[in-house]
Design goal:
There is one protein chain. By secondary structure, this protein is mainly alpha-helical. The relative contact order is 0.15. The chain is built from six helices and no strands. α1 packs antiparallel against α2.
Length: about 180
């Protein structure tokens, strides 16, 4: 009878450990996603200042500015990870166009305000990249737990679902066409 109690205790402790591991991994994903959202919000807040600076020099480039504004709005209104990733990719592409335009305006490139904003945006892009890697690493660890034995049994029993990676869209790696 004593052995039965030990077996039951070991099983209960195992269930608790596996459940806590899954729950902790889920919290780590939420924390990592929050880190991405903070950096994306900071970038979205920086974009209007950058656009206003560039607009002063490149008044006839309104199409690019409209694309940036539209992408920023989509970023701020995204309601899930897939929408955020899509809006992030759209905003990144639009910002590449802004910097390509800036290359055509030597006075703009020489502006300390523009240089400062460009440097701050570059720093934010590095932070966003790190936050994405951190998030995806946590998702990988969590998803591995969901599909490996014996935690997969408890994951399905307690309704733990696979998490989505923060993916780039197809074609994002291609250069942004800029027409003057």
């Amino acid at each position: 009878m004593f052995i039965l109690y030990i077996v039951i205790a070991v099983l209960v402790i195992s269930v608790i450990v596996v459940y806590n591991s899954l729950a902790t991994s889920k919290v780590a994903i939420d924390e990592a996603l929050s880190g991405i959202e903070v950096q994306l919000k900071r970038r979205a807040d920086l974009v209007p200042n950058l656009i206003e600076t560039v607009k002063g020099y490149a008044k006839h480039e309104t199409g690019v500015f409209d694309r940036v504004s539209e992408a920023r709005e989509k970023m701020l209104s995204a309601s899930n990870i897939k929408e955020e990733a899509k809006a992030d990719n759209m905003l990144s592409g639009a910002l590449k166009s802004v910097f390509a335009i800036a290359e055509s305006y030597p006075d703009l490139k020489a502006s300390s305000n523009f240089s400062s904003l460009q440097s701050e945006l570059s720093d934010l892009e590095a932070k966003i990249s790190y936050a994405r890697q951190f998030y995806n690493s946590n998702v990988k660890n969590y998803n591995n737990k969901i599909v490996t034995f014996p935690s997969n049994l408890l994951a399905s029993a307690f309704n733990f679902k696979k998490a989505d990676f923060f993916d780039a869209e197809e074609g994002v790696e291609n250069p942004v066409p800029v027409k003057f």
